[in-house]
Amino acid sequence: MNGHLCDDIKSRIAKDVLVRLNAFLLSYFGWMFFSILYIYIGRWSVDVTEQFIKLPFNSRDFILTLLNTTKSIPPVYHLLNAVYYIGFAGSIAFMVLYVLIYLKDFQTSDELLARYFIAYATAGAIYLTFHIYAPHYVYNVPGYDTDNLFTRQEFVLPSLHNTFAAIHIITIWKYRKRLGGKVLLTINTLIPFATVLLIHHWIYDVLAGFLLAWAISSLTDGWMAKIPRTLYQLEIRSLSAVTLLNFLLAALLLLFSLEPQKWILLFRALLNQP
């Protein structure tokens, strides 16, 4: 009897993890889909870059001074570069793995999931209304990838990099004394410096991201997901198969986002083969 009860509890916990894990993956896929769709629906967004760059700390001289100063200290430059490219998808993955997979803290996982959804929705609505281009794009600074479908140059204010970094800091703060918590706090604390000093974002993008993160985190404090009972009737194998498929899709999207032109050329070559 006790053995069956333990098996039921383990099965339920496993399903709780898998259902939430797929929800995180689907939220990420949704944002990727929006990024592609923005090519068409973003044409009605108002470009306010010209007015925006008149604000303090937005001049070309100031922006290039930030970048050149950072490059003059190679260890700092390389560290911030690594942090930036870990930044968005990487920081999300680390958070989910730590909070959901390792700690199995469903309360915190649900809060985090709600915060992601609201952040995506709010930022998307803002970008559809108006947009500002990234500083390296505005000032034609060489060495930046401006053709990435998933990292659009218009997705600047608020900065989702920094919104998510602040959300992660707020969410993981209660685990600050643990090693995993310290590592995540360090990475997410460095993200704002990486985005500004490497001129991927303006200072105002970071401030707007912090404000959005604080508002969303306050709104979702204590939130718990209501998982339909029908999902618990599914076999672990079925949920595991769906999860594996979503992971493979996420990996493909990540690879495509890193080298989109190479993948496009490869697909064209395959299509043109006899």
SSE layout and pairing:
Layout: H1 2-41, E1 46-47, H2 49-52, H3 60-71, H4 74-102, H5 106-129, E2 130-131, H6 135-138, H7 160-172, H8 179-197, H9 203-219, H10 236-258, H11 260-272
| Helix and strand element order | HEHHHHEHHHHHH
What is the CA–CA distance across the termini? Answer: 63 Å
* Spans where pLDDT lies below 50 across 5 or more residues: 1-9, 262-268
Helix content: over 70%
Morphology: globular
**CA-based gyration radius:** 21 Å
Sketch the major β-sheet.
2 strands, parallel
What's the total helix number?
11
Question: How many beta-strand elements?
Answer: 2
Query: Mean pLDDT, as a whole number?
Result: 80
Helix vs. strand class: mainly alpha
**Biggest sheet strand line-up:** 1-2
Estimate the strand proportion. Answer: under 5%
Question: Mind explaining what this structure looks like?
Answer:
The chain has 274 residues and is an all-alpha fold. 72% of the residues lie in helices and 1% in strands. The protein contains 11 helices and 2 strands. Strands 1-2 form a two-stranded parallel ribbon. α1 packs across α4, α1 (2-41) runs parallel beside α5 and α5 crosses α9. The radius of gyration is 21 Å and the shape is globular. The model is unreliable at 1-9 and 262-268 (pLDDT under 50).
Relevant terms:
mainly alpha; two-stranded parallel ribbon; 2 strands
What is the gist of this entry?
By secondary structure, the chain is mainly α.
